[in-house]
Amino acid sequence: MENKMEHFYENIVGWFDFQDVYAQQVKEAKDGDIFVEIGTANGKSASFMCVEIYNSGKKIEFHTVDIFPDENKQYNQEANVRENLKCFEFCHVHKSDSQEFLKSLKNKSIKFIYIDGKHETNPLIFELMLSLNKITNDGTIGGHDYWTSFPNVKKTVDAFVEFMNLRYTIIDKSYIIKK
Fold first, then answer.
1. Is it the case that residue 54 has pLDDT exceeding 90?
2. pLDDT digits (tens, 9 = 90+) for 69-83
3. What are phi and psi of 135, to 5 degrees?
4. Concatenated DSSP letters of 94-157
5. Which of 6, 54, 66, 173 is least surrounded, with the fewest CB atoms within 10 Å of its CB?
6. Would you say residue 156 lies in a domain?
7. Domain count, the chain
8. Which residues pair with 135 in a beta bridge?
9. What per-residue confidence (pLDDT) applies to 78?
10. Could you tell me the CATH number of the domain that includes residue 145?
11. Would 157 be classed as within a structural domain?
12. Is the pLDDT of residue 63 over 80?
């Protein structure tokens, strides 16, 4: 591809420190793969992923999911995300509960799911269990905040991989689970 798009995620308010994880997933992806991000917030990480996909020239479908709470009446999170990502026809923004969205997906159809939504044990364990059914046989589940002020994330991920007899690695604050 001749024309590369410059990243603009740094101009979006929010937190994002897993660029290496997203870049690696795009590098390993093939045409036709489907990626899902749970926890869009302001769209900072989603915008990075979209630019990476665009610049790769690969035909990857990307879905980003958030409940987009109406907490701040001065700032419409969902509208801003949609505006920032509208130039990417392969990107689909969903206003939905993560569990309901995951349930709607076909089993073994998703190459990569990244979880950065709710950080409590019960929602996270359900997201992990649902994700495990949705990823392809060579798929990956990743997630954020493994080594942070959310101790439930580490405890939940550790218990999940042990119970399910899975392998995982840690990259900075992200966990990466391979099926």
1. yes
2. 876 666 789 999 999
3. -80, 150
4. EES-HHHHHHHSPTT-EEEEEE-S--SHHHHHHHHHHHHHHEEEEEEEEES-TTSS-HHHHHHH
5. 6
6. yes
7. 1
8. 110
9. 93
10. 3.40.50.150
11. yes
12. yes
Contacts of residue 52, Cβ cutoff 8 Å, sequence gap at least 6: 22, 23, 26
What does the pLDDT look like over 152-167, one tens digit per residue? 999 999 999 999 999 9
Phi, psi of 155 (to 5 degrees): -60, -45
Angle at 52 between CA 133 and CA 38, to 5 degrees: 35
- Residue 90 corresponds to which tokens in the numbers above? 């392969």
Look at phi and psi of residue 144 and say left if phi exceeds 0, alpha if psi is from -120 to 50, else beta.
beta
For the cut 60, the answer to whether the pLDDT of residue 169 exceeds it is: yes
For residue 66, give its domain range.
33-178
Residue 12's closest CA among 71, 80, 93? 80
User: Phi and psi of 176, rounded to 5°?
Assistant: -130, 115
Inter-residue contact 56 to 90 (CB < 8 Å): no
**pLDDT for residue 67 is more than 90:** yes
Which residue carries 């269990």 as its tokens? 129
Give which of 44, 25, 51, 27 is closest to 36, Cα–Cα: 25
- Longest Cα–Cα distance of the chain, Å, equals 47
Does any domain span residue 8?
Answer: no
